[in-house]
Amino acid sequence: MSAGFDLQALAHQIRGARGLAHKRDIDAVVARLGLSSRPSAVPVGDDCAAIPDGDGHLLLAIEGFLDGFVAADPYFAGYCGIMVNLSDVAAMGGRPLAVVDAIWSRDAAAADPILAGLSDAAALYGVPVVGGHTNTRAAAGNLAVAVLGRAGPRLLTSFDAAPGDDLVAAIDLRGRFREPHPYWDASTGSPGERLRGELALLPGLAEAGLARAAKDISMAGVVGTALMLLECSGVGGLIDLDAIPRPDGVPLARWLTAFPSFGYLVSVRPDRTPAVLARFAERGIAAAAVGRLDASRVARVRGRADAGEAVVWDFAAGPLIGCGRTDAGDAS
Questions:
Q1: What is the DSSP letter of 19?
Q2: What is the reported pTM?
Q3: What domains sit in the chain, N to C, each tagged with a CATH number?
Q4: Rounded distance, CA 213 to CA 329, Å?
């Protein structure tokens, strides 16, 4: 971080980022549907719905895509329909079973690149598309994709991070931006075997009991995603911006609003952090402990040691997504 970097201005940029603004929409929807009062295996606000099933859980997730994104990069929109849903399943310690999609387009020709992206990603990640909904006579192009997955008895949730945990960031830096968008693509063009092996890292952590909570890095960026994890778990924490894995030559301000194709935040007991970092390193994933969680319910960032700290969000003062605990978990 450069000597002239304004930490307070960066915290303001994170709070005002478009990706984080979209996450704030969740609060009103959760309240309107009364979701926070309904019993479930995992409270609403996680990456997937978790449904108890035998000795494990079924996982159900859905992603919808902005019409501007679908129009600007239809192939990648289709590809992301698979990729981001699988990331949600992995973030909860699960493995994907099948995908369905809903697509609207002006005609069959406009739908073709979207379908090509869906098909290519499904083949690379080894997950079948088993059905969905199609309308090729619509006024505009839109896409939504849902995935069914399965996890064992140990889930990685957004609700189990605890004070004293290390916050580990793991990101595949072997990619490039899909200019001019904030999408860091380390997936298209990569071997399917590598992609499948990387996704298996998260359920591996869950099954080995090495991590207690996780969340995939979304359009909210690294710090924005951390805010959602901290809110759900009812904790606070300090994030070291200089510790976040970042590609060479990419400015920090841009990287903090980037959406990586493979990126996760994992809450880990400090004595287990070396083992977690080693697992990511074995697959060529850049990973580092980027912060420490505490009971403050205030999310802060720091840069250079002499630059102090900046508050990004005080959850006691107001919610971000309106999901989460008000009591901090223990560190057991």
A1: H
A2: 0.89
A3: 7-29+157-314 (3.90.650.10), 47-151 (3.30.1330.10)
A4: 12
